[in-house]
Design brief:
Blueprint: E1 2-7, E2 37-42, E3 45-49, H1 55-62, E4 69-71, H2 77-80, H3 87-93, E5 97-101, H4 103-112, E6 128-132, E7 137-139, E8 142-151, E9 154-161, E10 164-167, H5 175-178, E11 186-190, H6 203-213, E12 217-221, H7 229-235, E13 240-242, E14 248-250
Length: about 250
Amino acid sequence: MKMTLLGTGTSMGVPMLGCSCAVCLSSDPRNRRLRPSAWIEVGDRTLLIDTGIDFRQQALRYGIRRLDAILFTHSHADHILGLDDLRPFNQMQKQPVPCYGREDCLQEIRITFRYAFPEKHSHDLPHMQLIPVEGPFSVFGLDILPVPVVHGSLSILGYRLGSMAYLTDVSAIPEESFALLEGLSLLVLGALRHKPHRKHFTVEQAVAAAQRIGARETYFTHMCHHLDHQETDRSLPPGIHLAYDGLSLEV
């Protein structure tokens, strides 16, 4: 199983529009961060975690030619607004794409993309099969465990797939969710910046959570322009790293 991080930035991406800070002007490609999403390959089957605003650009950049399922963490714009670009996959695969998420997330998708749910479907619309997540489930033989986390005032989902887990947009991990994250080989975890934020872990909070979870390797994602890749990565404890767009991780 391989996970490629398609985007490791925040909702505004890095560089941020109108900003001339050192990170936004950096020539280090690891400081260029598209909106957050992950692509998972299992044999010849593939799934996405979230379809961010940059999904079309990411699919072209990394050669995504098939899409068998989507897991949604929550319904914020930077996680769902690329959904219209399902259309080529629908046309090539001649079927709807199964989309999994909390019922409240799926309801927001129905509202945001209401044109995609007519009484009679048309080939020029994105075609989705919305499937509520209420507990562990399986996609093409891959067991998936939803992991409840807190994002500000919202309850959202991370996902565990085998010994790999992806948790973005996290401000707290409920006690019962730590038990779902035992024995990980790989953890991808949100870490926005050093300054506190009510909706996201700081780097320091993410380090503390990562050390408690104890995955063999942890990579931080959903980073804003306040974090220079080289400087921040060098400051992290052993086994904890800053991710970057295009990073591929195998389990």
